[in-house]
Structures are given as C-alpha cells and as structure tokens.
Amino acid sequence: xxxxxxxxxxxxxxxxxxxxxxxxxxxxxxxxxxxxxxxxxxxxxxxxxxxxxxxxxxxxxxxxxxxxxxxxxxxxxxxxxxxxxxxxxxxxxxxxxxxxxxxxxxxxxxxxxxxxxxxxxxxxxxxxxxxxxxxxxxxxxxxxxxxxxxxxxxxxxxxxxxxxxxxxxxxxxxxxxxxxxxxxxxxxxxxxxxxxxxxxxxxxxxxxxxxxxxxxxxxxxxxxxxxxxxxxxxxxxxxxxxxxxxxxxxxxxxxxxxxxxxxxxxxxxxxxxxxxxxxxxxxxxxxxxxxxxxxxxxxxxxxxxxxxxxxxxxxxx
Length: 317
Hints:
It comes from Paenibacillus ginsengarvi. InterPro entries: CBASS_pafABC_assoc_protein, DeoR_HTH, HTH_11, PafC-like, WCX_dom, WH-like_DNA-bd_sf, WH_DNA-bd_sf, WYL_dom. GO terms for molecular function: DNA-binding transcription factor activity. The chain has 317 residues and is α+β, with helices and mostly antiparallel strands. The chain folds into four domains: 2-61, Orthogonal Bundle (Arc Repressor Mutant, subunit A); 74-118, no CATH class; 136-210, SH3 type barrels, CATH 2.30.30; 233-316, no CATH class. It contains ten helices and eleven strands. A five-stranded antiparallel sheet has the order 6-5-4-3-7. Strands 9-10-8-11 form a four-stranded antiparallel sheet, with helices on one face. β4 and β5 (179-186) form a beta hairpin.
C-alpha cells in the first residue's frame, strides 16, 4: 500500500507544479506527518522533491526534473496511449487511466501538444451507442474472478435457446466481433469453452472456491459449437436492390459489390451456415434476395413464409 502511495505521489507531482501536504494527506487518507515521511523516502530514492514555504507554498519536484523515458520514443508512447484509449472505450478500467496519466507525465512539455495530436488520431470503439451498462456488472465481476482465480457459475442459453447451469474457471475476457466472451474451463464438459456474456444470467462467484490456472488454448468456437462440429462454410450470392447499395457496402464493403445491368448489386460471400446466417439474411428484409445456393434460398423462403403467415393470422383475428 505504501509503495502504491509513493508512486501515486510521484505521478501527481509530475503532472502538477505544486501540491500541498494537507491535500496529499486527505487524498491518501493518511496524516500530514506520514506524507512528509513519504517525501523523505522519495528523496532518498533520488527523485528531488522540494518543499516551498509560505502562503502559496507546497511540495513540488525540482525545476526541470523529468523521469527518464529514453526507452520509448514519443511515437511509441503515443501508440500505447491510443491503444489504451481504444480499449477503455469498450472496457473502462481505472488501471488504464492511471497508465495514460503516467505516460503523459514523462512527455516533455515542449512535445505535449504534438503528443496529444498523435495519441488522438485513431480511436477504435466497439461499444454500442447506448453504452455497456448492462454488461458492465458482468465484466467487473468476471474481471475480479479472472484476477483472483475465483470459480463462477451462471445460467447459460445457447444459440438454440437451450438453458444450462454452468460452473467454470474464468481465464480470459475477449472482445470479438463487437461481442464480449468469457474464455473459461467448464467443469461439467471438462474443457475450455467460449461463453457470450449476453447469454449469461444469474452470474455469481462460488464462495470459498478457487482454481489453479491452466494453459489456455486458442479457441475459434463458442460453447454453442461443440469441438466435434466441423467448421463448415456456405458460399452464397445475394442480390441487393439498387436503393440498398449503402446497406450492402456497410455489411460487405464496397469492393465486394458487383453491378448488374438493371442497377441491382450482387454480393458473393462464404459464411458458416447456422442460425446466425439465417437471421442475418432475414434481417435484410425485402432489400436482398438469396440467389444461390438453392437449399439456402429455400430455407429463407420457408422462414419468410412462416413470418408472413403469423402476421396474416394476427390481422384476421
């Protein structure tokens, strides 16, 4: 605890010209006498801290002192800050914020404006526009479980809607394809699985139980796909109406579009054929039509007919 306080005092003084001992004492919930002992310890470590007397006095670093940061260039430090900010956009973490402050503290004042520009050029944000408020409690609980090797339990719903109770050893949180997953060792299946956080409910820590970390494998499947299931893809062709070009570009990229003489657009892609693919195509509505393969066209047509039937029945009642 003392070491963290000493480091925090150094970072604070690097970012501020002067601070009063009383403010430091209140910030770290210790006595003023303890703060002065901390200052002596920091001085003994070779970091020159000066106490200024008078009404506007306080504690500050010796003029011109900066931490040695020759190991990394400004461009390399800016890349680290950009990455941390992008991570924080989807996964806010106090440690990330503290590290950003530390990095800023070692940049010379003369380079500060240029560094701010370089570190703000790119921001990668996968979080939804309405935020991650529903996921945040799960993320915080699972982060604690991963850090302290705590066993977790939850009720899980797979892609087919089947519910099961899972007890797992959480090893890693993964943000992939705009979705959060937990990579964990499932005690029931006795193997590693990926669990989508949105499919979890009644998430809790199993009190009094911990685990020993295992070697984490590289996984490409979720718990909805058993390891024995082959990773098969289906190549399909979609025809988008002319007015839906923007939609096709958004999903597949402008390079994937092939124009037709009548103004429509063709897209040829290969995706795993599963419930997600069926729902995705149906979600495009009347703006897209499956041309190939025949069996996929038949599946979409059948499901569209079932949807239309429900609406016709509702209208007649």
